[in-house]
Amino acid sequence: MNKKNTPKQFDGIDYVKSIPDSQYIYLVDGSVARLLKPTIKNDKKYFNLRIKGEIGQYSVEEIEKLAK
Questions:
Q1: Is-contact 41 27, C-beta < 8 A?
Q2: 3-state secondary structure of 17
Q3: Does residue 39 contact residue 47 with C-beta atoms inside 8 Å?
Q4: 29-40: pLDDT as tens digits
Q5: Considering the chain, what percentage of its residues have pLDDT values greater than 70?
Q6: ∠6-28-11 over CA atoms, to 5°?
Q7: Smaller CB count within 10 Å for the chain: N or C?
């Protein structure tokens, strides 16, 4: 990538462009992702995720353990 197309950072994620008027970003690897808004409980972030067909709230720490 040249300097003009250098990936941007959003909470530690490399991405190329945000897609206007949407919750989506175009990632460096050509993927598209949707930004999720967390629920805050007791000053801790939780995200609603569907894993193995079940919807649940997962903390950032739990998500880091699940991601391989």
A1: no
A2: strand
A3: yes
A4: 888 988 899 999
A5: 78
A6: 80
A7: C
Tokens matching residue 21: 């008027």
What order do you get walking across the sheet with 8-10 strand by strand? 8-10, 13-18, 24-27, 32-34
Question: 1 pLDDT band (50/70/90 cuts)?
Answer: very low
Q: Are 7 and 18 in contact (CB under 8 A)?
A: no
Can you tell me the distance from the alpha carbon of 23 to that of 59, in angstroms, rounded to the nearest whole number?
21
Q: Output the CA angle 54-15-3, nearest 5 degrees.
A: 170
Name the phi and psi angles at 31, rounded to 5.
-80, 165
Q: Which amino acid type is present at position 55?
A: I
Distances (CA, A) of 7 to 17, 34, 36, 49: 8, 17, 20, 26
Neighbours of 15 (CB within 10 A): 19
